[in-house]
Amino acid sequence: MTPSRRPLIAGNWKMNGMREDGQALATELAGRLRQEAAPAFDVLLCPPFTLIASVGAAIAGSGLHLGGQACHAKGKGAHTGDVSAAMLADLGCAFVLAGHSERRTDHGETNAEVKAKAGAALAAGLTAVVCIGETEAERKAGKTLHVNGTQLAESLPAGATAANTVIAYEPVWAIGTGLTPTLEEAQEVHALIRAELFGRLGPDEAENLRILYGGSMKPGNASELLALPDVDGGLIGGASLDADDFWAIAQSCP
Ligand code: PGA
Q1: Is there a domain that residue 186 lies in?
Q2: Is 3 within the bounds of a domain?
Q3: Ligand 1 atom nearest 235 alpha carbon
Q4: CA 87, CA 250: separation in Å to the nearest integer?
Q5: How many domains does the chain fold into?
Q6: Whose CA is closest to atom 6 on ligand 1?
Q7: CATH of the domain at 217
Q8: Residue 101 falls inside a structural domain
Q9: What is the pLDDT along the chain (254 residues), one digit of tens a residue?
Q10: 168 Cα to the center of ligand 1, angstroms
Q11: Best of 236, 241, 246, 249 to mutate for ligand 1, by most ligand atoms within 8 A of CB?
Q12: Alpha helices in the chain (DSSP H)
């Protein structure tokens, strides 16, 4: 963390939760944020589409932010099963993930599609959380920096600024596995992302744009990851489903 950037702690609930437990978790987290005298972090919840409305009601007025996990690149139309960025905004979302590795794998989302979806998010007034990360094979082949640099260059939407875009670096091999990069490895990729952003967006935007780390972030490793100079928060999957764990991570922000 660098003091000029306010950490963002984002919970990606993935395909988990029924109305009752989603509402209970959201209510609990809203209560915890209200108890913080002066929280030094922003908190974002990204429930599945089915829970966005009920979670939104449970967190209303709490200061917690609401986001979707994905959106379509088009504003509306004949796209069965999809949801537009404007629909998410209409439900009170301020954020949406774009290009999470599970979307890239399960739905074959390419960098160009991720860029289009992130662009649609910006057009709808949402902040896009653009996700990138290398696979285990790519890391073993020494391609980590190249892969992340390419994904970033090809997925970053036109008009990206520090105010409307967040990058999440999530090594695919660290997601849901309990594995994490060393601190040096994590900082190396975050620094590369920051350097690429300097070239693309200029120093002011690059300096202020938040870069999250994601992949098996837990209460036990959050403090050291969040203390790295170019790590500005976390995108948390498994541990975001447990209020104690998620809040412990948020409170680990330096
Ligand atoms: P994980 O997931 O924390 O369960 O590893 C992170 C993510 O996929 O966003």
Answers
A1: yes
A2: no
A3: 9
A4: 28
A5: 1
A6: 237
A7: 3.20.20.70
A8: yes
A9: 677 899 999 999 999 999 999 999 999 999 999 999 899 999 999 999 999 999 999 999 999 999 999 999 999 999 999 999 999 999 999 999 999 999 999 999 999 999 999 999 999 999 999 999 999 999 999 999 999 999 999 999 999 999 999 999 999 999 999 999 999 999 999 999 999 999 999 999 999 999 999 999 999 999 999 999 999 999 999 999 999 999 999 999 99
A10: 11
A11: 236
A12: 19-35, 52-59, 85-90, 101-106, 111-123, 136-140, 144-155, 183-201, 203-208, 219-226, 243-250
